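To whoever picks this up:

The parser on our side crashed when reading a file containing two proteins. I've narrowed it down to the boundary between the first structure block and the second sequence. Both blocks are reproduced below exactly, byte for byte. First block:
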Amino acid sequence: MPNGPAFSAYRSSSNQSLTSGAWTKIQCQTEEFDTASAYDNATNYRFTPQVAGYYQVSGNLYFTGTGITNVAAQIYKNGSSFKLGTSVAGASSNEAGANVSALVYLNGTTDYVELYGLTIGTSPAAYAGQNLTYFQGVLIRPA
């Protein structure tokens, strides 16, 4: 198994405010590890590996707000919707979670992935916390 890019980052400093009903890029600003300096944790909050191959990418979101009725997590590739994860619709609540996982080919030069979240409710936010809101990826097989 080759040594390839891997990262794990999470939302740490405070809850991230979201606009109800709008897809929002999640800002995971604290890196647990980033073996190839391929995750931007300060500006774009995206993973841009410089090794072409197949990557396993996943994210988890935990939302807070008032009257949350729907939540979802999504991976974007190159700025567009790529894979939609779990979403929950149900009784009004003040907390809810969503996650997404996908296998994705990244070309090693210009391709990148980002984590987005959506929730419907009043004053929604993505919780900060290493175990609540995080984004991860690892090279599974080079091209």
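<<boundary where parser fails>>
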Amino acid sequence: MSKKKIDRMKRVGCDPNMISGIHNYCDRWCERCSFTSRCAVFAMEPEGGRDAKSLDIKNEEFWSELADNMQSSFELLREMLEEHGIDPNEPPSAEDMAEYNRVEDASDKHPLTRDAEEYMMAVMDWFKDSDSMFEDKADELATKIRLELPNCSPENEVIELRDIVDVIQWYCTMIPVKIGRAVHGKLEGVPDIIKDMPRDCDGSAKIALISFDRSLAAWIKMREHFPQYDDEILDFLVRLEKMRKTTEYAFPKARSFVRPGFDE
């Protein structure tokens, strides 16, 4: 099975329709992406596309497929390293490990990293404690539907509210990941030979900035639906705007970073 997957990965990699590296700077929201047909990572999904069962992270089949994909990727990586004369079994030097640990520790303690983690946890806690709020809204919308009020579209309001929640919940987990990667890359630095090339940390920071932008827009719409929670929602807006401004300052080239496919 793994050999078959490796061969498939090689075929996908040679497909001229694929956009090289597009998956490196995306938000991983494949269900809302317009480039899935040109993404090699998406093409490596099980034959026949994704269904609800294969996407369910609690499903044994999901984890089995994930483990299989990882093993195939490791085998392909090993082949590539050996082709370039690199021994994949050679342990890192003590100096390399010390530098890695230094960067890892500094990244974890960075204010942006901490703020992103705190925002994510605050959002999760807010939704966890908001069951009654959404139940009241559901009752309100059900009443509007039943009364068939003129100039009123509760069905569209339901769809909009669902989209708002999806956006906020998706990006609250994406923000710490991308901020962490951006900060780690900036602290790690780059060799002189590639200093003039686009930097991965700027690409990661750009995804974080896009996540801030979309989250801010979603929270503003959430505020319209739940004006009684104005203070709490304003707190999230302030957190996001602070992180957005700090990220733009720390990564001045992030906004202009050209992501393969998306910005070309």
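After patching the parser it read the second block fine. The chain has two domains: 2-83, 95-250. Residues 154-188 form the longest helix (35 residues).
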